[in-house]
Amino acid sequence: MTQVVATFYKFVKLPDFADKRPSLLAHCQALGITGTILLAAEGINSTIAGSRQAIDSVLAFLRSDPRLADLQHKESYTDSPPFNRLKVRLKKEIVTIGLPEVDPNQQVGTYVNPQDWNALISDPDVVLIDTRNTYEVNIGTFKGAQNPHTDSFRQFPDYVRHHLDSTKHKKVALFCTGGIRCEKASSFMLSQGFQEVYHLKGGILKYLEQVPENESLWEGECFVFDQRIALKHRLEAGTYHMCYGCGNPISQADLNSPKYIKAICCPHCFDDFIKEA
């Protein structure tokens, strides 16, 4: 049975976020929803899966709160369950950068629609930065993008402080999977004196959905945080698998490597496995 996968987030002041959890959890459970919903005082962040009717019902339930009435979401589809269970969690941040003063509700960069993204990043004066982590960047990114080589989003501010200069880098373009990390990344960069900070509206997923493959500047596949592992253009399922040992996405070449042992390790973690054996 085909399931709808819905991804959405919204930065909005939700001081009563903890009070919202019981009714939201019960509503999702009654509909057989799986996936994760994060609630914090700064907003909501989620990827969930379920039937067409179930997803529509959850979105309507959320939008019945006037603060979430304009909640936007992205959809893709899968023939196998992408999540094992449902989690509705209370968090300090809906995406963790570790800097309470960074608030997208106060300031954020300039949104760029997918149809306008190619023109922006083709400008030689623009510094293009992938705000995702190394294991995500390794399987796909935009042509010419800088890789910050981070293991977690918390490290992104240090990357900016040590590698970028607001007096030299006048135009910066940021992108991430669905757009949420760029909200905080752009807000942080503006607070550091960068004047022109742009970010891809809807993230890589919206770009892959809307921009024809023959016009695309995307190279590779896009890592996603569910059991599909990666998506391609038109949000079709990708070719990557997941290593049970280290959690890294692994390619067909990795599967054929002598350092791949099914359900144990892969070329990314083989040496560590051998040390511990």
Automatic annotation (TrEMBL):
UniProt key word Ion transport: no
The Swiss-Prot or TrEMBL record annotates one GO molecular function as: oxidoreductase activity, acting on paired donors, with incorporation or reduction of molecular oxygen
Query: Key word tRNA processing present in the record?
Result: yes
Q: Name one GO biological process term.
A: tRNA modification
Extract the Gene3D superfamilies matched here: 3.30.70.100, Rhodanese-like domain
The family database entries (SUPFAM superfamilies) matched by this protein are listed as: Rhodanese/Cell cycle control phosphatase (SSF52821)
What's its EC?
1.14.-.-
Q: Which SMART domains match?
A: RHOD
Q: What InterPro entries does the entry give?
A: Rhodanese-like_dom, Rhodanese-like_dom_sf, TrhO, TRHO_N
Which Pfam families does the UniProt record give? Answer: Rhodanese (PF00581), UPF0176_N (PF17773)
Swiss-Prot/TrEMBL keywords: Oxidoreductase, tRNA processing
Query: In this protein, which residues make up the domain named Rhodanese?
Result: 122-216
Catalytic reaction equation(s): uridine(34) in tRNA + AH2 + O2 = 5-hydroxyuridine(34) in tRNA + A + H2O
Cross-referenced NCBIfam families = PRK00142.1-4
- Read off the HAMAP family from this record: TrhO (MF_00469)
UniProt lists the family membership as follows:
Belongs to the TrhO family.
Question: What's the stated role of this polypeptide?
Answer: Catalyzes oxygen-dependent 5-hydroxyuridine (ho5U) modification at position 34 in tRNAs.
What is the protein's given name?
A: tRNA uridine(34) hydroxylase
- Origin organism is Moorena bouillonii PNG
